[in-house]
Amino acid sequence: MANRRMFLGAAVAAASVMLAASAGAQEAKHYRFAHDQQLNTGYSVAYDMFSAKLKELSKGTILVDQYPGAQLGQEPQLLQLVKSGDIDFAIVSSANTATISPQAGVMSLHFLFRSSDHLVKSLANQQVIDAITAMIDETAQGLHVIATGSQGVRSIYSKKEIHNAGDMKGLKIRVQATATEDAIFPAYGAQTVHMPFGSVYTSLQTGVMDAAENSVNVYLVNKHYEVAPVLSMTEHEANNALLFVSDKLWQSLSADQKQWVKTAAAEVSAKEPAKAFELEKAAATKLKGYGVKIVEDVDKKSFATISDPYLDKLAKELGPHAEKIKNLIRGIN
């Protein structure tokens, strides 16, 4: 009888362990994280940091799967999918965020950031993050900003060298669709063209456009150097990004789960921008090895002299959130 009781006890204990393991396995949920860039870019670095930290904090119950390379759509489409709750997380440029919240165009003001260090420090600043979060919460529905990110700074690539603002005259250049871009590039004398990022390569190849602009690593991994082999380091604009969570998912999370997401997101804001600039340096070295002409001696002052009056003017025109974000960033030393 004693042996039978021991056997039954062991069996019940084993069954309990199996049920607990099964319940634990069932608790693990997968969520989708999308972006339009390739792997080994600032976007994928943000995913790596965010997903790893969230997995750690949730003890494996929240698993985030990456969908890179515009598998689920270009950035404007991704924003709509996050708003509808069909995608859980997405990292999108602040410029393309202007398609749902025009004041986000403030992050694209030329020479808003004084240096890479200033950019990294600004994106990690809690007041700046809070101001961006408030802007989206008050001007868009269905999604929330949980982190800031970067892909370095944007420069111009073409078949010709750009040494100063005068070289921009008459240049047809693909830019992001924001009021900021449409005001500042024509001031340099260029003609702006809007098109999805995925169409840039072919448009440069066929001559529909003369030039485009993006960060060094994005230029590298998307092989735009094959059709525009001259990279002029204008470094005119920060390549900022925002990490979004769907409101549909957010409302379904417990208080603990929300805190895990916030903590994982804070890691992105604090660490990803610096990693993005490391990728920029490595990309420049690779490009030189491929024979790409990198124009280092760009007269940035010739650009800044033209764009500087637009900083206050455009921020004010965009709205109070934009003006506040601009003032916070400019006030960071």
List keywords for this structure.
alpha/beta; nine-stranded mixed β-sheet; 13 helices; globular; disordered N terminus
Descriptive notes:
By secondary structure, the chain is an alpha/beta fold. 52% of the residues lie in helices and 19% in strands. It has 13 helices and nine strands. The protein has helices at 2-27, 42-57, 75-84, 94-97, 116-123, 126-139, 179-188, 200-206, 216-221, 247-252, 255-289, 300-318, 320-330; strands at residues 29-34, 62-67, 89-93, 143-158, 172-174, 191-193, 211-214, 230-246, 293-295. Strands 1, 2, 3, 4, 5, 6, 7, 8 and 9 form a nine-stranded mixed beta sheet that branches.
Fraction of residues in H or I helices: 40-55%
Shape: globular
How would a textbook summarize the main sheet? 9 strands, mixed
Number of strands: 9
Low-confidence stretches: 1-24
Along the chain, the helix and strand elements come as HEHEHEHHHEEHEHEHEHHEHH
- Helix/strand/pairing class, anyone? alpha/beta
Q: Quick check: average pLDDT?
A: 92
Distance between the termini: 79 Å
Alpha plus pi helix count: 13
Give the DSSP E fraction (strand runs of 2 or more residues).
15-25%
Rounded to the nearest angstrom, the radius of gyration is 23 Å
